[in-house]
Design brief:
Blueprint lengths: L4 H9 L9 H5 L3 H17 L6 H21 L5 H11 L6 H16 L5 H15 L29 H6 L26 H10 L10 H14 L5 H11 L5 H16 L5 H15 L24 H10 L3 E4 L4 E5 L3
Antiparallel strand pairs: 1-2
C-alpha cells in the first residue's frame, strides 16, 4: 500500500487523539480532527493485519464507516484537510463505486483548498473510479504493485504527457524498461496559445471568431495533451473546454482532470468547469450526475442524494455552483464566498 507522509502523520495522531470509537463517539465532536483519527486507524488496520482478528477488523471498519457517514450527512468539514481525510477513506481500493466517486469529489475540494497531497490523491481517486466502472484509467496513477516500475493497473490509456502527470505530483512511469518518461519536460516548438485559440473558436462568440471543425479541434487537443503542449492553467482550462465537446469517456475524464488542475492553479471559472465536466463524464457513463450540471432542479436524482441536502449544499458551494431552492425545486443563486 502506497502511503504518503500525511498518511503516516495520521497514524501518529492516534497516539495523541482520542479513539474514534471511544470519547469521540460519546461526545459526537466535530469531524475535523476526528477524520484524521479515523483515517489513521484505517491505515493502521490495513498495514498491520496482525493486531486484530479478522472479525475485529470488520467491526472496526463498520464503526468507521458509520461515523464517517454521520460526518458526511452533517457536512461537518472546516478545512481542506478534513475533505482530504474523508476522501481518502471513501476512495480506497475495494470501496463501492459511488463511495469512490464521492471520495474523488471531496479530494478535489481538498485540492482546491490546497491541502497537501490532495491533487495526487484526486488523480488516483479518478483513476480508481474509472477502473471500478470497468473503464480505462487516464492518468495511470493506480499501479499493479508497490514498485515504481510496476505497470499501471489494466485497463489504462497511456496518452497523457508526463508534464501533466507531474502537475498532479505523479511519478514518471517506468514500466517500459527501454525508456522512462521525462519528468515534466515540455517539447520544443509548441505554440502555447494554440489550445486557447481552438477553445475560442469552438466556444466563443460565433459572430466574431473564425470557425473550426469540432472533430479536428478534438483530434488536435488530444495530440497536444499527449505531446506536452499545455503549459499553464489557462491551457488546462481551454483544453478541458474543447475535450468536453467529445462524447468519449476518455475525453470527458481528461477534461475533468484538466479542469480540476486549472482550478487548483487558480484559473477563473475553472471550479465550475470541474463540476460540469464531472457531470458530463457521469452522464456518458450512465450514472446520475453529482451536481446536476449546475442548474438542474433539486428534485432530480443526483449521485450523492443518500447523504442528504447539507452535503449537497457544501459540495455546490465548494465548486462555486448555484444553491437549489429546495422548496421550489429549482435553483436560486451562487453563494458568494
Amino acid at each position: 500500500m502506497n502511503l504518503n507522509p500525511l498518511a503516516w502523520i495520521s497514524i501518529a495522531l492516534l497516539a495523541l487523539a482520542p479513539s474514534a470509537f471511544g470519547a469521540a463517539q460519546k461526545g459526537k465532536k466535530s469531524g475535523g480532527r476526528e477524520l484524521a483519527t479515523l483515517y489513521g486507524e484505517d491505515v493502521s488496520d490495513r498495514s498491520d493485519r496482525g493486531r486484530f482478528s479478522d472479525k475485529e477488523i470488520v467491526e472496526r471498519r463498520r464503526k468507521r464507516v458509520e461515523r464517517l457517514d454521520e460526518i458526511l450527512r452533517a457536512a461537518d468539514f472546516t478545512a481542506g484537510e478534513d475533505f482530504y481525510y474523508a476522501g481518502r477513506l471513501l476512495a480506497r481500493e475495494g470501496e463501492e463505486v459511488n463511495r469512490i466517486l464521492l471520495g474523488h469529489v471531496l479530494l478535489s475540494i481538498a485540492a482546491l483548498q490546497r491541502a497537501s497531497y490532495a491533487l495526487e490523491a484526486g488523480a488516483e481517486s479518478l483513476d480508481r473510479w474509472l477502473l471500478a466502472t470497468g473503464r480505462s484509467q487516464q492518468l495511470c496513477s493506480v499501479l499493479d504493485g508497490e514498485d515504481a516500475r510496476s505497470p499501471p493497473t489494466k485497463p489504462f490509456d497511456n496518452h497523457v504527457h508526463q508534464s501533466i502527470r507531474a502537475e498532479f505530483a505523479l511519478e514518471p512511469l517506468h514500466f517500459d524498461d527501454q525508456r522512462a518518461e521525462p519528468r515534466g519536460k515540455k517539447p520544443k516548438g509548441f505554440n502555447s496559445k494554440e489550445v486557447q485559440r481552438l477553445d475560442t473558436s469552438l466556444n466563443g462568440d460565433p459572430k466574431s471568431i473564425r470557425p473550426v471543425d469540432p472533430d479536428a479541434a478534438l483530434v488536435r487537443v488530444r495530440a497536444i495533451v499527449g505531446e506536452g503542449g499545455l503549459v499553464d492553467a489557462r491551457d488546462y482550462f481551454a483544453a478541458a473546454r474543447v475535450l468536453m465537446r467529445g462524447a468519449q469517456v476518455q475525453d470527458l475524464a481528461l477534461a475533468h482532470a484538466l479542469a480540476l488542475l486549472a482550478a487548483a492553479e487558480g484559473a477563473t471559472d475553472a471550479r465550475e468547469l470541474a463540476a460540469t465536466t464531472l457531470d458530463a463524464l457521469l452522464r456518458a457513463c450512465g450514472t446520475p450526475e453529482a451536481f446536476g450540471s449546475v442548474v438542474t432542479a433539486a428534485s432530480e436524482a443526483h449521485a450523492f442524494d443518500a447523504w442528504g441536502p447539507a452535503l449537497d449544499t457544501l459540495l455546490r458551494k465548494s465548486f462555486g455552483l448555484p444553491q437549489p431552492n429546495r422548496e421550489a425545486g429549482g435553483v436560486d443563486r451562487k453563494d458568494e464566498e
